Amino acid sequence: MNPWYSTPNTMPAPLTDYNVRIRYWFGKPFLARYDADNEVWISNSNGLTYPVWSISRFQLPEDFPVTSFVLPLSSSGDGSEVSTLQLTFSAATSLKISGTGLFYDDAAGTINPGNVRFADSGSAQTFYIRVPSGSCTINIVNGLDLITQFNEFSTETNSPAIGNLLLSNLPVNLTYFYCYGSNTITGNISNLPVNLTYFYCYGSNTITGDISNLPVNLTYFYCRGSNTITGDISNLPVNLTYFVCEGNNTISSYTSRFWSTKPGTFILDGLSSLSSTDVDQLLIDFDADLTWSNGNKITITGNCGPRTAASDAAVANMESEDAEISTN
Fold it and tell me: Which of 217, 250, 227, 212 is nearest to 167 (CA)?
């Protein structure tokens, strides 16, 4: 490891070494960036500024460990459009894009192009990205620790898409994940962050795994695309209020359970293949355990078997409570 550098004699280029560890007199080191125009350090954690003369040492990023989150992106179509990335952080940090990509301040991709952006803590931060050709990566310093919500990544026909992001590489404190478009997210759902409560993944993804391994606190689950999720509906998280599983997923069984929480939207479609007996039992349990209302929707179609007369009474009762029910 290189030694600490003295200041102000060897200052880094402005915004190049955008996440630098500095020592304020005899205090503990903290992360900051250098503003060359005003000759001050700006703290990443609270935005306070420190004059050059007040800082005794600084250390460049390559000389100390950080837990960066790296988001790989690749160009799509003619590269003319912009993708939207929205994240929430528990503390201020910075993002740097490398390769052919650029950040913009507007959804049209015309204002203030650049390689670096800074993010505050608390509210969701929005970033607009264009990759005209080839590929790039976004490096979010300490992102594995600081990102609490992956609020949105959405693409257009000609905007960049996520390329081969592994579920096991998601930030550990993530509670919310929303990703939509021609992205390629891979991995097993057993590797989702343990604190995750919201999961929306739709696109050219190849996620695998058994639904029994979903995070226990999950309340919202939407999964559609080239995924191959399997399992028994009985093993869904107990607090789930929204469930949609479509595409290439192959959920194939249900072995009765008590439903303490109502999944107000429950859609099982695609290649999933509950038997007629399983479909009947699921509907009977839904009716016995829960009270339904207008706007609630239960759809069990795709490769699932048709329900039989065994569930007639249950369906009639739920429809009398204004639930919308569709089966094969």
Answer: 227
CA nearest to 173, candidates 97, 69, 44: 69
AA identity, residue 226: S
**What length does the chain have?**
328
Q: Are 228 and 253 in contact (CB under 8 A)?
A: no
Residue 296 near residue 326 (C-beta atoms within 8 A): no
H helices then E strands: how many in the chain?
3, 25
How many Å apart are CA 99 and CA 138, to the nearest integer? 9
With beta carbons less than 8 A apart as the criterion, state whether 265 and 290 touch. no
What is this structure's pTM?
0.81
CA–CA distance, 227 with 251 (Å, rounded to integer): 11
Q: Cα–Cα distance between 274 and 292 in angstroms, integer?
A: 22
- Whether pLDDT at 309 is above 80: yes
Phi, psi of 297 (to 5 degrees): -135, 130
Residue 293 tokens read as 């209302």
Per-residue pLDDT at 143 exceeds 60: yes
Q: Where do the H-state alpha helices sit in the chain?
A: 143-146, 276-289, 312-320
